[in-house]
Amino acid sequence: MRVFVTFLLSVLGASLVEGRIVSKCELQTALVNLQDANDPRGLTPDLMAKIVCHVELASAFNTSAVTRLDRQRDRRSSGAHGSGNSSEEKSPRPAGRPVEVHSLYGLFQLSNQLVCSDGASPSPNICAMSCDDLIDDNISDDLLCVSKVRETLMKNGFRARFFEELKKWFMNIYRECGNKTPAYLDNCVQP
After folding, report:
1. What is the pLDDT along the chain (191 residues), one digit of tens a residue?
2. Could you give the CA distance from residue 155 to residue 184 in angstroms, rounded to a whole number?
3. Which domains can be identified in the chain, with CATH numbers?
4. What count of other Cβ atoms lies within 10 Å of the Cβ of residue 57?
5. 139 to each of 97, 100, 112, 136, 144, how far by Cα in Å?
6. What pTM does this model have?
7. How would DSSP label each residue in 81-141?
């Protein structure tokens, strides 16, 4: 009976979010179409390859991907050090040191604490959108949000609001996919 209930809940949960898997080439074409021909700082083929690689690693091209991240602000309670024999490590997390929880949404795994609003977590909501908009089968709003984040950094540089957080996201792309070149997208035919 438990197996049936678990199966039923997973099917119902999956049907609530209408996501899809996009192909590497579909994403590349969408990024190309998003570019402004008059912007010399547009997405270079090299950066495009790195972004597509990031999407592959972060969401497996799944538009409905949601990743929940829990980070404890108190390292002692994370079990990250020592042998576990200390009474300090065995004690519960001290009051006032909450667990930091945030989620990443959609193809690009965008944070609810920075670019969108989930209605529960505080967020500057840079893209002025609900996080639910990032997990449907329509990728145009995801692309526009990524474009807005990039534009914010390009226009304002170090003065950009939330510069450090935005920089971390882009640096993660380079950390994961720094070795990807335009050859990564060679099997995609340009329209």
Report:
1. 443 333 333 433 444 457 899 999 999 999 998 877 776 667 889 989 999 999 999 999 999 999 998 765 433 332 322 333 333 333 344 455 555 578 999 999 999 999 999 998 889 999 999 999 999 999 999 999 998 888 887 787 777 778 888 888 888 889 999 999 999 999 997 65
2. 29
3. 18-185 (1.10.530.10)
4. 13
5. 37, 28, 17, 8, 9
6. 0.73
7. SS-S--HHHHSPPPTT-PEEEEEEETTTTEETTTT-B-SSS----TT-SBGGGGGSS--HH
Residue 156 has which token pair? 């304002």
DSSP code of 67? E
Which residue has tokens 């035919």?
A: 189
Burial class (CB in 10 A: 0-12, 13-18, 19+), 165: middle
Q: Within its chain, how far is the Cα of 182 from the centroid?
A: 22
